[in-house]
Design a protein that fits this description.
heterodimer; A: alpha/beta; nine-stranded mixed beta sheet; 22 strands; globular; B: three-stranded antiparallel beta sheet; 8 helices
């Protein structure tokens, strides 16, 4: 029964093929011969105190048959046990593993070692290798052998001076375990420095609730001490990493006791005062937390996905094309496609008035808010159907792009796809139309400029409709290039975007409109893209590329008349990735706009995301 | 729509005594093609870039010693004296018909004999663009073919009203014994409007059969 079908490895990553069983067996024999392989059970009475008792009891080795089946389940026979042992205990920076062994437990394989530098033992480490059911995937996938493979860092203790080693070891493990098909690192950040260190390594809270509590903790601390921190700065925190780097300019005192635990309160003896940046100090003094980190190097580029279930709360009237279901379906499909495991997930924050007013005047924002609060059915035009949550959701969409900009600009990911709604590219400074209320992309671009000082931004809009709002906002700005490729305005909403519209004043020549005729197919469309868009990006040399990625130019989309397939989106994505690699360290923030046919939106967006990741 | 609302009031003018050179420079600097010629406040004629071009094509005259005589033309010598004019209270349609029939580019606007403005083809095109609302974001054009009976037009408008679709402009023109209605509607979801209209029995031509 051929149940064990794994997804094929990513092109170019050169994953090894499964080894024959006798190779595996030989590996086991070698380890047994060296006295490195044992059976194990979890110790029911763990005593946490250091060094006294281990978390597991060494027992007799399970049968050969069991050994083989457990090995296959976890390591898919991609590596022989002896070779694995060698790789996992590789000598790095003069640090060696000693007294190390591999233990085979019922549901896990355990690696346990002492870490030595020269003749001194400087630390110890225990890793668990486990596989668990991925609840994002169905039962069938589970039966076919698809599992979340996890490296659990159960215990690591290193003397102070070896932190450089820890980081190098971690890099080594990331590649090693990635190649072996592991999906996640997990750990419990409980030791003093670890609580900060793991956050900085990119570990996030396993439980979102825990993160929320953490964020509230920061807020309380700031309020209690009256630190000069603005509300929005705390709202923007979406990842423990953000907390670790929070307000590095603001140094605050904490107290360390003799064992190296930190606290804000100075109440006992042996408390030495030290100062740390706000975020670091908070984590050092915080409660232990459970962390996880996706082993996401399994794609050539690191790609983020920004989404919040909050986006589903904008509910236009029944029968409206921009329904919450389109995004729901897309996210569901991403979950099922096993993409989620390779994407770094982000959540939006609520932006403050000041960042919104970089684009939209206060009067317009108030008018929009009041229309929603007073229970109006539409705002400005019939197309812009609103519901109770519309104002907040529109804000969250804008904040989503801002969080996306954060993620890309501070280097957590190379590029990101922001799955937001309502869309934004028709919204001008003070006008809503075509399902759009706030111009998400424009707000993101202004945010990137205000917060990160990004100079030149290239906005590519391949939604089937002309991005008239974005054009209006940037037509006089020579540092923001707006390029829209869309169905011709005579045939298609909003009736603007002719070739002759090339920008105004200083911005003349920094707007490019490329209308195409109805029924344009992939070939003509991509021809135009290659001939006109690419040379413009090369000429402009952007510092950041943003995409208004609508997928309604697809042949199956009901709203307009172009005849593109996924191929166009893949090709364009590939090319802008190349451009971004050349000019701006790969930085792309892609923002969902239109796309109204569930299945063509889903397949196009997934193809787009996979191409962003560098696979295709 | 009256000419007075669409014309350029107080246009740049020349006098019959000005040199053609000066007229030529005025046309070049201001990037237009027609200069009314006034004597005092009264319209005396009109000079166009065509007139000026024609003077440069004149065979130069040569005197007895074989020297080329450069003659300095005056505007009065080359202008068109018998000018067709309109008044500010003529309509855009009047001006349009004249411009089209006579193949002119511009008409001086006079009250009595006094020049008050000039109206050009460009002004008329602008009037059309405004009337049809071709420019400006938020509208999209659809076409519906209707039998030559106003009740069908009424039904069409009712249907759109029912769907709460904003009509931004509507032109009805004869087409092969029927009417074709050109509408600009203010919605992004045109596909839906078209399919609802088709379901209600209207003929909405496909984009391949686009008329305009």
């Amino acid at each position: 029964m051929a149940l064990r079908i794994e997804k094929l490895p990513v092109k170019g990553m050169g994953l090894p093929h499964p080894l024959p069983k006798r190779e595996i067996e030989k590996g086991f024999e070698a380890l047994i011969g060296e006295n490195r392989l044992f059976g194990a059970e979890l110790n029911p009475d763990i005593i946490k105190k250091e060094g006294s008792k281990r978390k597991f009891l060494v027992s007799s080795l399970p049968s050969r048959k069991k050994l083989l089946s457990r090995w296959e389940r976890l390591f898919r026979d991609l590596v022989s046990p002896a070779r694995f042992f060698e790789r996992v205990s590789e000598k790095i920076q003069e640090f060696e593993h000693r007294e190390n062994m591999l233990l085979v437990g019922k549901d896990r394989i355990i690696y346990d070692t002492q870490i030595a530098l020269g003749s001194d033992v400087v630390g110890e480490m225990t890793l668990f290798f486990l596989a668990e059911r991925d609840h994002n995937l169905g039962l069938l996938a589970y039966l076919r052998g698809r599992r979340n493979r996890i490296v659990y860092i159960d215990h690591i203790r290193l003397s102070q001076q070896s932190s450089g080693y820890a980081s190098a070891l971690f890099r080594h493990y990331e590649t090693l375990f990635h190649d072996l098909g592991f999906h996640q690192f997990r750990l419990s950040a409980s030791l003093s420095v670890g609580k900060y260190y793991w956050a900085k390594e990119g570990f996030d809270c396993l439980d979102r609730e825990e993160f929320r509590r953490m964020k509230e903790g920061v807020r309380d601390l700031v309020e209690k001490r009256g630190f000069p921190v603005e509300e929005i700065e705390i709202n923007r925190l979406t990842h423990v990493y953000d907390i670790a780097l929070f307000r590095r300019d603001l140094k605050i005192p904490v107290y360390a006791n003799a064992e190296g635990y930190y606290s804000f309160d100075k109440d006992e003896e042996y408390r030495e005062e030290r100062t740390f940046p706000l975020g670091k100090a908070y984590l050092l003094c915080a409660n232990p937390w459970d962390g996880y980190k996706i082993i996401y190097t399994n794609t050539p580029r690191r790609t983020g996905l920004l989404y919040s279930p909050g986006y589903l709360n904008h509910r236009p009237r029944t029968g409206h094309p921009e329904s919450h279901k389109r995004l729901g379906k897309l996210v569901e499909a991403i979950r099922k496609d096993d993409l989620q495991g390779s994407l770094v997930l982000f959540e939006p924050f609520l932006p403050d008035r000041r960042s919104l007013e970089m684009v939209h005047p206060a009067g317009y924002l108030n008018e929009f808010r009041n229309s929603v609060r007073t229970g109006k059915k539409t705002f400005a035009t019939v197309d812009c159907s609103i519901s109770e949550g519309s104002f907040d959701v529109a804000l969250l969409a804008a904040g989503g792009v801002m969080a996306g900009v954060d993620a890309v600009m501070n280097g957590r990911v190379d590029n990101i796809f922001c799955a937001v709604r309502p869309p934004g590219h028709h919204a001008g400074r003070a006008s809503a139309m075509g399902f759009c209320f706030l111009n998400n992309v424009a707000l993101g671009a202004c945010y990137a400029r205000a917060v990160y000082g990004v100079k030149k931004i290239f906005i590519l809009d391949w939604d089937v409709h002309h991005g008239n709002g974005t054009q209006e906002i940037f037509e006089e700005d020579p540092l923001t290039y707006f390029c829209s490729i869309h169905e011709h305005p005579t045939f298609c909403f909003p009736g603007t975007g002719r070739r002759m519209e090339k920008g105004k004043g200083e911005g003349y020549g920094f707007t490019l409109n490329l209308p195409v005729r109805p029924h344009t197919s992939d070939r003509e469309f991509l021809d135009l893209f290659e001939k006109e868009v690419i040379p413009e990006i090369e000429r402009f040399r952007p510092d950041l590329i943003m995409v208004s990625a609508g997928f309604d130019a697809h042949n199956d989309d009901p709203i307009a008349d172009l005849a593109l397939t996924e191929r166009s989106f893949v090709h364009m994505t590939q090319r802008i990735c190349e451009m971004a690699d050349t000019y701006c360290q790969g930085r792309i923030v892609s923002v969902l706009e239109g796309g109204y046919n569930g299945s063509s939106l889903t397949s196009s967006a997934i193809a787009h995301i996979k191409t962003l990741q560098g696979r295709s | 729509m009256y000419v007075g609302r669409r014309m350029t009031a107080k246009p740049i003018t020349v006098s019959p005594e000005d040199t053609v050179m000066r007229a030529g420079h005025l046309l070049k600097e201001n990037r237009f093609h027609h200069l009314p010629v006034v004597a005092g406040e009264e319209l005396a004629g009109i000079v166009t870039d065509t007139d000026i071009r024609n003077t440069t094509l004149e065979e130069p005259s040569v005197n007895g010693e074989g020297e080329v005589l450069v003659r300095e033309w005056k505007v009065g010598e080359i202008m068109t004296r018998d000018v067709i004019t309109v008044s500010p209270w003529d309509t855009i349609e009047d001006a349009l018909v004249i411009l089209h029939r006579k193949r002119f580019g511009a008409l001086p606007v006079v009250e009595g004999r006094k020049l008050v403005g000039i109206i050009t083809k460009t002004d008329i095109l602008a009037a059309f663009i405004d009337t049809l609302r071709i420019e400006g974001a938020g509208g999209v054009r659809i076409e519906v073919i209707l039998p030559r009976d106003v009740s069908f037009l009424l039904r069409l408008i009712r249907k759109l009203e029912e769907m709460k679709i904003e009509i931004r402009s509507l032109v009805l023109s004869p087409f092969r014994g029927e009417f074709v209605a050109f509408l600009r509607i203010g919605t992004i979801d045109v596909a839906n409007v078209k399919s609802v209209l088709r379901e209600s029995g209207f003929t909405v031509p496909a984009l391949e059969d686009f008329f305009g």
